[in-house]
Design goal:
Strand order of the largest sheet of chain B: 1-8-3-6
Strand order of the largest sheet of chain A: 10-9-8-7-11-12-15
Shape of chain A: globular
CATH superfamily of chain B: Jelly Rolls
CATH class of chain B: Mainly Beta
Largest interface: A-B, 32 and 24 residues
Oligomer: heterodimer
CATH topology of the largest domain in chain A: Rossmann fold
CATH architecture of the largest domain in chain A: 3-Layer(aba) Sandwich
Number of domains of chain B: 1
Helix content of chain A: 10-25%
CATH superfamily of the largest domain in chain A: Nucleotide-binding domain of ferredoxin-NADP reductase (FNR) module
CATH topology of chain B: Jelly Rolls
Low-confidence stretches of chain B: 160-166
Number of strands of chain B: 8
Distance between the termini of chain A: 29 Å
Number of helices of chain A: 7
Shape of chain B: globular
Number of strands of chain A: 15
Helix content of chain B: 25-40%
Largest sheet of chain B: 4 strands, antiparallel
Mean pLDDT of chain B: 90
CATH architecture of chain B: Sandwich
Amino acid sequence: MTGQRTASPALIEPAAETAAVPRFYRVASRREDTADTVTLELTEPAQPVPAFAPGQFAMLTAFGVGEVPISVSGLGDSGGGRARRLEHTLRAVGAVTRALHAAPPGSLIGVRGPFGTSWDVASASGRDLVIVAGGIGLAPLRPVVLTALADRSRYGRIVLLTGARTPGDLLYTDELDRWRRGGVEVAITVDRADSGWSGQVGLVTALIEPAGLAPDNSVAFVCGPDVMMRFTADALAARGIPASRIRVSLERNMRCGVGWCGHCQLGPLLVCRDGPVVSCDRAAALMRVRGL
Amino acid sequence: MTGTVAARLSAQPFFAALTDSQRGALAEDGTAVTFAAGKRLFDEGGVADMFWLMEQGGIALDMRVPGRGDQIVETLGPGTVLGWSWLHRPYRWHFGAVARLATTAIAFDAASVRRRCDADPAFGYAMLRAFTPVITERLQATRLRLLDLYAAPSQVRHADIGPVNA
């Protein structure tokens, strides 16, 4: 593994032996978060891959179907520097994710990784954490929340602003109260309310102003659809948070995971290697280029 | 909330771009109000004779959809304004509004504010400068929500982006 970059989120190279060949993990549990989203707990690896940092992703294999990049959504168990337990939250949107979504407890899944850069939460020590999630973008950000809660005194305010399509699409609803009790300021909005929804309705950026952020002392972590991240980054920047302290998690067509195949190229970046977590001073302009 | 309307106006950033005298003039048309949760402020199609600067609480904008009841299209919180239909003819509300929480606000007499705008173009321009960013922001937010960004691919219909003449 290489050392951490100072001006951008940490770049962590995977161990070569786990970069190319999937390791077998068993599905220990399967929790249905929403109608199309599950969180899989993977355990009992015969040969565990190296430990993951929050923000990094794995290539998960549904054997006989294919392989997809999925970020870690929990802290897992990284005893001895190895990932002995992993959590991945995924949404059934294509053939591979549908197969993974349907994987029952006891079944085997292939894991390659860890790949890419991390959120580098520790570098925000002493600052306020502003976590902005859109839709399933909360999944890669959950480890940020859990990391901060595990060492609560190390950080200032922890502000979680999250948006979802409908109330039924909200993730981790059973954990939000626990996070609140732990000192996370949680604000939620949905695009479309139903009759039972008493919370806010509107875009996630509408939650930023009422949060009363301290831009001079905040680090922002943003994950969601590209357009949502662009507008959120703009809104945070307009309130004074510098682009260098706004981190986004990019998603492109990651295949090899180690920067060899070039499928995930975004201008000068290979997202699997230089991302997925990139600070906005590098990512903002690239996210606006048509065709990238 | 306590204090004079003028003092309360000064405490809110929304009208910060107005001069002290302009804020003072605006305050003459303002009244401190409170709404209990569940109180309906106005209905779609009603006369838009007021607007509110919200200080505490929360308001939902809604629209009655036959067969689906009152559908909430957006919620508004402290620090923002409720209502801009008073700015232009026909001065009718395009949505309804109901307090979702106990709400404290400053209510303004829209006709009187309009008269001030007409009589004092500098005041009118300052008011427009205060309202335009909110209108723009909400328009952009609405456009983004139209994109249905959080939908699964199966939930959205993709536009045909092929050549027009192909």
